[in-house]
Amino acid sequence: MRFLIRKRRTAPAIIIVALIDVLIVLVIFLLVTTTFKQQPALKLSLPESTQAMKSGGNENPPLLVSIEANGVVRFGADAIRAEELRARLLVAIEKAHANGQADVKLALRADRMAPWGRVVQVMDIAKEANIKVMSAYMKEPGKP
Description:
The protein is of the alpha/beta class. The chain has a domain at about 65-140: Nucleotidyltransferase, domain 5 (2-Layer Sandwich), CATH 3.30.420. The chain has 3 helices and 5 strands; from the N terminus they run H-E-E-E-H-E-H-E. Strands 3-2-1-4-5 form a 5-stranded mixed β-sheet, with helices on one face. Strand 2 and strand 3 form a beta hairpin. Helix 2 packs parallel to helix 3. The longest helix has 18 residues, at about 15-35. It is elongated and about 105 Å long. The mean pLDDT is about 80.
């Protein structure tokens, strides 16, 4: 005796049209929120000048400090000790301030095999001399 009659369930169906609608909404959302390159509203044809300065043309070159693989520190082309470096940096800063230059820049070049302690020492000396703008890059062996 069967008291319970079981009804046959139909297999669940996926409605493709609804999925396509959701995907289109996502694509529209991505297109709206994406930043595009902004085109200027006015297209101007600017006049040319032979006397115009290029960007960065009025900037003074940085002071150059190089550290060789054996730890020798060079200020420009001269090999110097750390104490001399501090004095020369201070003289260069005073000379730059006398010429009206506000910030003095330092470019630190170090060989790939240069002792890291020497690099840190030169950076500390530059900080003590109140050089705020410093760029450091490594030199590959065999290249100037």
